[in-house]
Amino acid sequence: MDQHLTLALAGNPNCGKTTMYNALTGARQRVGNYPGVTVEHREGDAHHNGRDLTIVDLPGTYSLTAYTPEELVARDYIVERRPQAVVNILDATSLERNLYLSLQFMELGVPVVLALNMMDAVRKQGKEIDTPLLSKLLGVPVVETVARIGGGKRELLDAAIAYTAEKTGDWKPLTISYGPDLDPVLQEMVAVIEKTGFLAERAPSRWVAIKFLENDEQLVKLGLQSDAETSATLSGMTAAVGRHCRSTLKISPESLIADYRYGYIASLMKEGVVRVIRPQARLQFSDQLDRLLTQQFLGPAIMIGILYAIFFVTFHLGAIPMGWVENFFAWFSDVVSATLPDGLVKSMLVDGIVGGVGGVLGFVPLIMVMFMMISFLEDSGYMARMAYMMDRVMRAFGLHGSSVMPLIVSGGIAGGCAVPGIMATRTLRSPKEKLATVLTAPFMSCGAKVPVIILISAAFFDNAASVMFWTVLGGWIAALLVAKLLRSTIIRGASTPFVMELPPYRMPTLKGLLIHTWERSWSYVRKAGTVILGISILIWAMMTFPGLSVDDMAAFDAQRTTAEATLSGAELTTHLVTIDNQASQEALRHSLAGKIGIAMESVTKYAGFDWRTNIALVGGFAAKEVIVSTLGTAYSLGEVDAEAAEGLSIRLAADPSWNRATAVALLVFVMLYAPCLVTVVVIARETSWKWATFSVIFNTGFAFTLSVIAFNLTRALIGL
Ligand code: GDP
Ligand code: MG
Prior knowledge:
Elements lengths: L3 E8 L5 H9 L3 E5 L6 E9 L2 E7 L11 H13 L3 E7 L3 H14 L3 E6 L1 H6 L2 E3 L1 H8 L3 E3 L8 H15 L11 H18 L8 H9 L3 H10 L1 H21 L4 H18 L3 E3 L8 H9 L4 H42 L4 H18 L2 H17 L1 H15 L7 H9 L5 H6 L7 H10 L8 H12 L3 H24 L22 H20 L1 H14 L5 H17 L2 H22 L1 H13 L6 H10 L4 H13 L10 H7 L5 H13 L4 H10 L2 H30 L2
Parallel strand pairs: 1-4, 1-5, 5-6, 6-8
Antiparallel strand pairs: 2-3, 3-4, 7-9
Bound molecules: guanosine-5'-diphosphate (GDP) and magnesium ion (MG).
The site of magnesium ion (MG) has 3 residues, from helix 1.
């Protein structure tokens, strides 16, 4: 066993580092300069419990970014010389500011022991620090010291020695979320770094990526020397996200990173690390606002109120531009109908493309209104508070505080996507909590489910906002219950502590809001114009071919001839339309998709789904938007002379096979059944194909069971 340990003392200037160093080493000191710079290098020996120790007094620094020679020296020492542990001395009278450096050690991954120094002064201020709690939250040893009288120095060395024995030199970096603007870029950068092994000998990949975002000159220069190509790629990504941050948030990535680090620390403090015995503090604006907005009972009530208000405004304000878009497609479809001759091309354009893609695009205005409000929550910093408040709930159901963001990204407030949501679970360190989060993220109301929810709520309920509110909440309830079920059966295991980043509140800029709204809406529109367009045409074809048999065609023709011979005037016109409708219904039934849908009816009838709904639900496995587009095609194929201006929701409401019970059952099923294809692939990539398959089978079974219950319950309630 290696008897000799090197411990590096680090900390902000004036935290008492040198005082502690003297207390530890006594007279056994060596003083010199670091090569090339005038920064003093001090090294001394100590003995503790039979161990020989070398104690290094690093220069005082506020950060580990190469802004000053001191910072560079301290960092290079740690990265290159790799001491067995860093003893981070903190001035505990300004704990928040001092923890900023500690976080950076933890992000770097070096084993670190915290010495909360100047505890005598802290007590004099009438404060108490819950060191066991701080230690638990950060996952590193924390010792209270009073360097001036040598207080706590034995405990400090005990803790450091025990910790190095446990850590045996391997670095475990802490991952902090830097919010929706930087996290995705960081992930991409990490992927690039890991692929090329860029600067791998120096530091963990995420740390290297963060340093690039912070424009760390020294590291960028080193990178350029070791691998110019990767370095250029990373610099390009940094420049792009820098422009994005500056135009949307009006701040640089460096400041954003600092904000999130301070936010992380602020949330530690909120856990009650520092207890004020004699209060004196004047609260700052953010803290004052947080007092109200994250208050134990009022906070969640306000959160639910805000959620409801979002849906209310979405429906009432969004309905106006939505009418314009619907009118446009109706007009467009009229023009196409009038100019093109009857036939397959016209049917594909009117029923397949306008009915399908148009149906999906019709929701764009509504979705934009909603995205705008959600962007406001996110940019203002309130979204982080929502996550903070949800933490307690998460834990009760076997999830982790860090599960909240992935769930919100997946559509927790309506309108996200499970794909980035599931990728965001990478910040979860416990594999079991990560798995539970990955498996429940698809229950959220993602952007593709939103049009289905809007369609059904608007068609069958007077208070659509309220239905949407309960649907979204229902997704959460299902996610939590399933998480609890999984965590108490097949993925059992202890929960890990959590710290949430709470960035300061800031007033969102209009430009930032517009850009974020546009980014979200555009990806929806683009998907409608590409993937959904392709699937719509495919499904239209499946709903059109093989078409009526020659015999059937003849039979309908015979009916028409008879009608023309016996009837006249308006009566004849009405009758002919009825025959045409029957003919196209019959053709749809005979189509490939129709046959599949009808075959499924023997099972799905228990949930009230007819064959056309079945086709839509099967198509929805490819992408959930397809549910709306397929219903659009099915109901426009089925009704030859359907008033073009009639929206799909009016058609559904008027259809005899639909009622409120079917509507409720469909909402339940759509919220919970198998994740879409892309999500399944991502689940497989983040976990394994075993779990991806599990999610398809389990979710569909779970969804079907619940929708059968919902169908029958609603039927009983409304007396059908
Ligand atoms: P460094 O610049 O980080 O090396 O800090 P120093 O060791 O020079 O200490 C800065 C000041 O804090 C000195 O005046 C010390 O006497 C004082 N100091 C150090 N430790 C303590 C402590 O535990 N309690 C109090 N009250 N003062 C301390
Ligand atoms: Mg000093």
